[in-house]
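Predict structure. Chain length: 505.
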Amino acid sequence: MTERKVRVRFAPSPTGALHIGGVRTALSNYLFARQHGGQLVFRIEDTDSNRFVPGAEEYIIESFKWLGIQFDEGVSFGGDKGPYRQSERRDIYKKYVKQLLDGGCAYIAFDTPQELEAKRAEIQNFQYDCHTRQQMRNSLTMSAEEVQALIAEGKQYVVRFKVEPGQEILVNDMIRGEVHVKSDIVDDKVLYKSADELPTYHLANIVDDHLMEISHVIRGEEWLPSAPLHVMLYRAFGWEDTMPRFAHLPLLLKPDGKGKLSKRDGDRLGFPVFPLEWHDPKTGEVSSGYRESGYFPEAVINFLALLGWNPGTEQELFTLDELVKLFDITKCSKAGARFAYEKGIWFNHEYILKKSNEEIASLFEPICREHGVSDSSERILQVVTMMKDRVSFVKELWPLCSFFFEAPTAYDEKTAKKRWKADSAQQLTELIDVLEGIDDFSLENQEKIVHEWIEQKEYKLGNIMNAWRLTLVGEGKGPGMFDISAFLGKEETIARMKKAIEVLG
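Prediction complete.
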């Protein structure tokens, strides 16, 4: 087989919000395509018209735009191999359904849902396959005239793939190696439904991948059981020579590692499983998203890339370009990857540290303004410079830093009980006198003068500082005391101290 140009695809169904597992699959396709100088195609698999959800397609496109995963071709991106929406490809699929029927590789089945249910009740673990199809109402057990008469009457039917028994099916997977399956255990899957004149996923994805010249199919592990059927379909069409190579990514598991990750896990443990916030048009339910929760797209990408794959080094922080260079799909794990959402929070913290103080300040400023802060952008930047290393999300800065902009209106009872001594009021009144005498209120100058005063008075440094912090902050948190007082300035510092002495006594 000659070397082919790398073309991969991501093909979600517009049935709701994009699951984070789908994002990971798209990312793997993106990294693989970029690494090999190939193309990434965006296709919409909307053959199941009953499950279509308005707004889902737009949501998916917006998600990737936010994440920085760029497609080269497909729905909304252009290209010469469209249409890229399966519902717009009906006539194309009909041609290939006919080809399978004419070649004896498929047959028409008229079994009603009731008849199928009766058969399931009759035969334990019933499967529509080479062992049972002769007992059913289909074109293998009926005359051509009967079949045509039923179609002419408008009877609904499906087209099933005719799996030949006694074959060994080889799936050569880039992650899992060779997977051998006996055709006898594969059922005659439905490929087409007359009810909506649309194929099922099994036929549509084969035809589309072939016509769109897809070289590699990188998808989730849940599709591995279907891979033997897909190999047989390529054979049936005579496309075995151009069949794409398969890679089935490991499942994303619940945080405890027991079972597949679901939205309920996120709801229960308080983390998103969708890239963007999703408003379900059917139920009205709102589900949280990584963007709205305050994650940086780079952090989400970094986190997802290392779920089920690692570069074999201790390095954990990667740019998208670095991931492109290092990604090796053959090194992906075969076992499921535990979704350690706490690691995602850690990544976001690391990206806060990596970003400039100016960028974080520009994100924090609107939050400050919402809380009525009128301080300059420069002063907000000062606060961010002091405090950004203490948070994992920009939104966490306000509860941590609000005291810089607002004087405390109350004093934490627990802290006061522990830190406000019998002589605190008297000592801090003395400190006020010291501070009033300082002309140069810079951090360094304050620190020198106050430390000299404490030594001279033989006061305990901890007692002074803890009580002083309580007066300025309202509780026992924040950066160094002189950072706080220098930022507040002499007037505000002394005003807060006087008020606290009055309240705490």
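Summary: The chain has a mean pLDDT of 96.
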